[in-house]
Amino acid sequence: MPSMPDTAAARTSAVAFDPIFDVELARRALAEDVGRGDLTTEATIPAGTRAQGRILAKADGVVAGLPMAALVFRLMDPDARISLIAHDGERVSRGQTLATLEGDARALLTAERTALNFLGRLSGIATLAARCAAATAGTRARVVDTRKTTPGLRTLEKYAVRMGGAANHRAGLDDGILIKDNHIAAAGSLGAAVARARAHASHLIKVEVECERAAQVDEALEAGADVILLDNMSDDAMRAAVALIRARDPRVVIEASGNIGADPERLAAVAATGVDLISLGALTHSAPVFDVSLEFDAR
Amino acid sequence: MPSMPDTAAARTSAVAFDPIFDVELARRALAEDVGRGDLTTEATIPAGTRAQGRILAKADGVVAGLPMAALVFRLMDPDARISLIAHDGERVSRGQTLATLEGDARALLTAERTALNFLGRLSGIATLAARCAAATAGTRARVVDTRKTTPGLRTLEKYAVRMGGAANHRAGLDDGILIKDNHIAAAGSLGAAVARARAHASHLIKVEVECERAAQVDEALEAGADVILLDNMSDDAMRAAVALIRARDPRVVIEASGNIGADPERLAAVAATGVDLISLGALTHSAPVFDVSLEFDAR
Amino acid sequence: MPSMPDTAAARTSAVAFDPIFDVELARRALAEDVGRGDLTTEATIPAGTRAQGRILAKADGVVAGLPMAALVFRLMDPDARISLIAHDGERVSRGQTLATLEGDARALLTAERTALNFLGRLSGIATLAARCAAATAGTRARVVDTRKTTPGLRTLEKYAVRMGGAANHRAGLDDGILIKDNHIAAAGSLGAAVARARAHASHLIKVEVECERAAQVDEALEAGADVILLDNMSDDAMRAAVALIRARDPRVVIEASGNIGADPERLAAVAATGVDLISLGALTHSAPVFDVSLEFDAR
Amino acid sequence: MPSMPDTAAARTSAVAFDPIFDVELARRALAEDVGRGDLTTEATIPAGTRAQGRILAKADGVVAGLPMAALVFRLMDPDARISLIAHDGERVSRGQTLATLEGDARALLTAERTALNFLGRLSGIATLAARCAAATAGTRARVVDTRKTTPGLRTLEKYAVRMGGAANHRAGLDDGILIKDNHIAAAGSLGAAVARARAHASHLIKVEVECERAAQVDEALEAGADVILLDNMSDDAMRAAVALIRARDPRVVIEASGNIGADPERLAAVAATGVDLISLGALTHSAPVFDVSLEFDAR
Amino acid sequence: MPSMPDTAAARTSAVAFDPIFDVELARRALAEDVGRGDLTTEATIPAGTRAQGRILAKADGVVAGLPMAALVFRLMDPDARISLIAHDGERVSRGQTLATLEGDARALLTAERTALNFLGRLSGIATLAARCAAATAGTRARVVDTRKTTPGLRTLEKYAVRMGGAANHRAGLDDGILIKDNHIAAAGSLGAAVARARAHASHLIKVEVECERAAQVDEALEAGADVILLDNMSDDAMRAAVALIRARDPRVVIEASGNIGADPERLAAVAATGVDLISLGALTHSAPVFDVSLEFDAR
Amino acid sequence: MPSMPDTAAARTSAVAFDPIFDVELARRALAEDVGRGDLTTEATIPAGTRAQGRILAKADGVVAGLPMAALVFRLMDPDARISLIAHDGERVSRGQTLATLEGDARALLTAERTALNFLGRLSGIATLAARCAAATAGTRARVVDTRKTTPGLRTLEKYAVRMGGAANHRAGLDDGILIKDNHIAAAGSLGAAVARARAHASHLIKVEVECERAAQVDEALEAGADVILLDNMSDDAMRAAVALIRARDPRVVIEASGNIGADPERLAAVAATGVDLISLGALTHSAPVFDVSLEFDAR
Q: Which of E9, E17, E175 is closest, CB to CB, to B76?
């Protein structure tokens, strides 16, 4: 029964800077729920009462967000003992214990909902991501997310996508060049847009171009795009585009996008066209919650 | 074609304090997506370019979050002209224009995803809330939300629930007393928990108690609970509990909860038991996104 | 000589989230006083000097705010040993030791004024609240505070009121419905205002209405108000209103308000009218400071 | 009928940086009172309702904090028209109109309590400061404040002291050297403490030393103190010390301190000893609120 | 009774989100300098005094940071009229007017030092960057910056580098892969490190490897590095490495780094080796300030 | 070889308030560099890898900023063991070990650049300050800094100046009165400006006046200035002014300023004129970085 090593414990309860498990985000979430105080708990639980309990999975899936849940509990009780029984990215079953907790009863009860809200949402994303990734297993296609994330939770949600076994597209507008129709229109032509992007971008960034028609694919290759996004094409059109691109430059990465959805059969069909990446907004904008609960031991 | 009056315009783009459409939340969301700058737009769109476009519904539903979307656009371009064609709480159809925009092309493109992420998520919640509320129409039962909301978005999501025609349960732990099993266990008995809550609470707060069995309902009535939550009961058990409560004290409010789900038939059946409230976590934790897009006019 | 248990010590010196003893408020207060550094202490006290001392009451009264003072000292010296000899809510006498301190001399001297400013103000409120509460002892009337608090210190001041033995009215505008004359005027009538409030409010919130005349009390009862505030009435008028209300609905809570002041005789007279609550702005807006000092031991 | 000039108006409602009328302080104060929304106002006042009213003095005194009150109203309604009829530092009478307001009814009602809380507290301080300053009029003694201020309101409270006609002592620990007994003890002797302070301080800062006995005054003069604080001395002892200091160095500034209190007769007696400054903690830690109200015009 | 005019525009644009000219950074800088108030200006300049003046270059160079300086002035006086005569990236001469100002005299004087501190530092960087870029003109080598920037000013300093005509390397650790010796050691071998980076990185990111010896260059090419950094090599060694790389894969980008310094002759020599990029920490960590001043017109 | 004790280590990385080594500044600096995560380190260094290394001086100079560097490392790894071998203010030699580190390899690598950026910049300032201070050794003239500091780093840079052995001028506009030409013009005359400053300033503040001509020196003495700044005068003019001032009032402090620069010979010449202070903007606005590096031990 592995527990979080002491080091990790100290870190989460302190002010350690962490770009993913952000202590300020956890504090804001707690403040949002606790407000001026937990009226019910203060009224009914005597100060100093201890409690122990466990976080349980109420469904099968892939768990993500356990360190964030632990951070929330530790913000209410820095001395709480939290042992992670499962770990982010692990496949878990209904009824399985994900973590055990021991600490101040008031603090744990007050933190419960906020901690579970993080855990349920992130595990929901990881579980959907795992299902989608499985649908393309054995092909060269990787499922990737989009920027259609929950405002304020981008970093956590993209982490949950990775925990589910899918991959990340851009983290933000500063994290890669992706030229879409409006950029092309403003630049005058696809070629002009790519040229401007090359001149502007750092030498470490690749240039991706969204294409809706075969003619655009041609123009993109001509302009030297590093990545080509096939948007809203039929499977046949995609297959043809892939063939064309592979023939012209095998280093070019090919992404499929546009109303593909999280349906396994559809994903397998798109993967079969030979693309490298399939991007899915649904991973983050429509994943149903993964049900988790906190059960306290009878005293 | 009604537009937001000047007053509203000035307020949303300024530093006006608003507990719902929070400017700091909008700034954090923009910062999260824009990071160090929108590389693609800076490279391809000449500074000073103007653009106009419209936000379109891509499905039928109930819209919510238009002022938040407008706030996001105005944070990037305080001089953008934004006319809301639809209004929060309105039922809209696929293809319908929700708002028109005119402003700096770079700013609008950079803000697009963040604005739509708010609008899609909140409209998704409003649409689901409207569907659930419709299922109990004609009964005394109101559909209400829970505290199972997205961390950081509680106030906006509860607003979206209201826009969909459902109602709100507690905004947070400081906003009402709701005694659950752990509180009862710590207090020694249901009666003791209610007594402590009465002594602790302000005179403006009611006391609600969660009951899983008929015996608890009895004890709750005895203890003087103002609201009784029937948790995870069968429809027959609920019907019996409702009869008992109404007979004893017609002022007591009755809530049904526990794995009811957003299914219209199930909601109608629960409503038929005679309860006053049906609480649904799904309204906020599992509402699928409502699809919206921003179309720019050809230049 | 009881000391704060280790757990509490660790919590106050860490980033623990606490809606009452807010670490950010303590940091802002320290920053406000320390500015760019304590010039005198840095110049005259050698680095590494140790000090021990005690916080003394300089008057008789009720203490409140010791954990906040401890938090301030710990923000300057996380390793300081602070033992609370008295506890919040306790009646103390002039000359009594409230806490002992041992730690870095520079840190303790730099933190002294900020810590005592919190302690003196909150103990001043608790002391006044205790005096007012005593004046109504033996009656059904509870003394309650108002929203006339110091900007930025609402939560702490309302905590001090409780420590003094009085009770809290609304924590804020979102914490209960209280309909006043302007709301009635805008709604058209008292009855219309109550009806709108009922429809708008959560099922956990009661509706209170301010009445200045007997006719309004009647209208309020008719409209189904849960709580009636008798504003600026003579004692005779209050007595008559109480009789009327009790006859009509014994569950209705009655509050007296308006220029009552913190005078014990006046409070007793109002309590004798039979009201349930007497609200006093003076508890928080005009409580004189409670004198405390920090004495360092001779070295 | 003078109003705030356009420039000032624009500045207070915008994000203009102002070290006294701090927009973040105003926002925190509003957030503290409004919480998740003004339930009563939202329920009873229709959106778009306009209101006009006036802020009235309910007592005689000196007003301070009108720009802060205006800032609070403008944070809720940036388009509110606010005309200041009185100005900070002005003596006003019971019943006098201090400002007129016209704006969104919901916004003004929601902001009312927060705005008045600032105005009442600051005017209370200004009024007390004016009374104390008047008590020493005609002498060389100036009444000054201390660092015994409300946590979070230091800058505003010291501003109110100035508006009342008294003066400010140190703004914080970084704003001047003031050597007290603990510093002397740690440095070994008063002379050593002064010498260290001189070596450490910038050339723009004077060195003040607290003396409790005549011998210390001697030592302070010897050490070259710029300012001497006579702490807790009898009037006779003060008179003697003043004579000694004036004889030795007429440039040295003399301050009296210690349990003097805000009593006019006592202040006059201390001023008669010939000191330059009399510091009073009561100005900021025990000033009773100045009563103000907001009256809306009948519609 | 005057109302707020067009200043609404100034107001709203003040809060605009901008990843480069960050309003919070400007506020913190002002707060740092102004502290509790500009004592000299408040004492000597009557309220309401108007002033006009101009910002002058006191040396020849390339200007950068004018919008940041304007933002600082506007935070003190939102109604100040600021006309930029020069523009960022422009070469200016000693004595040339960069901008004219007209506004509240107190506000402009208080903001002066903070505004000029930004402008002088950023123009210093732009001027040095321009000198370095000129040294490699006519070659394929671009001068780029590093992450050796001033804490807190990364985005502004990298902007100034661009304004000077040089280019940017990584904006941060999340903005590209750059494998150095410690990463190689931990991964076991250069090839293993590149393989892990490929598997971990998004499809839009290139992989760069730092090589100190020819053997490493070979290994890097073998491993499929997109960019090769030649660190601390002699010119001859660089020339040889360039030849090798070009022969093996003309798409690979080559960067030179390590103690090259901002000396034009040295830069020309390095450029002559045929590399694509020369990175210089000195651009941001050692650029001397560019002298600017604010002259007010005589009144 | 003294090291920071473990306890203190753990705590300094926590929330301790420190006006110089500000944890929020350190967090912002880390966030600026790390962004959404250190891609290279995450990809190549296995989680849990340990590392040890040392910070080395790469040049001769005076070190400053080691506690800030330690704070940065501890924010990434609160359990890192950091032993400071050198101490701020110490003269160090090229190759000397300044500190040893042991901790989580990922954390130390990720923090490296941010920590070194603080250390290099502050040591650069301390080194230049030491060189300038040495140039006036044996004279009564102290070298002081100015307000020409890096926005956001004022407190740290002024600390580095002290560590180098030079002294500080004003910390900000609230920290002393310094009357310049624009203040004189607005006040009408130098004498009027001094009189207003005296009336406005606290009794602990001295009044300094900038003089460009002998006639102004005369006027300043007449007006009772405490400090006279000789701006942009020739050495002969300064000598004459010093003689005049010393004759009139030996207590008046004399400062020289204006394009003096960090040249030792020039500083010695100015010191020889007999002034008390020489202020140098170059100390903070143009100090070249001090080269430091972090070497990890081979594993």
A: E17
